[in-house]
Structure prediction request, 143 residues.
Amino acid sequence: MKEKILDLYKKYEELVNYVVVGVMTTLVSWFVYFASVYTFLDAENALQLQIANILSWIAGVAFAYVTNRKFVFKSKEKDIFKEAMQFSASRLSTLFLDMAVMFVMVTLMGIHDGISKITSAVLVTIANYIISKFFVFKKKEKE
Prediction:
């Protein structure tokens, strides 16, 4: 039984690690958001609410980059700055995807925001994985 589980893990290691890192990234992001609004920012103030959102996004992206690089895609890229900028840009693009999905589903279609957020999260997660795997952390062909 233990060997079967280990074999399954090895077969799907990248995906399993991506999900685990994703959950941890979400927790980091939420922690920064709630720590911000419960200590030095006021969630009732529209500007401060957005500052808390931005801080949580930055913390989430920074954590996600480090953990995806090391544990998911096991990148050996020497130009870490370039790779980090590509990663950040890709996450910014999926932030816009998230915003667009929420606008269409909630504002234009009148779908409940909770259902819309779950739908958006699934789409963003898939897009983040594809972009990370094939563009940011792509393996270089051996010459």
Helices lie at 2-11, 13-39, 46-72, 80-108, 113-136. Residues 33 and 39 are 10 Å apart (CA to CA). The chain has a mean pLDDT of 92.
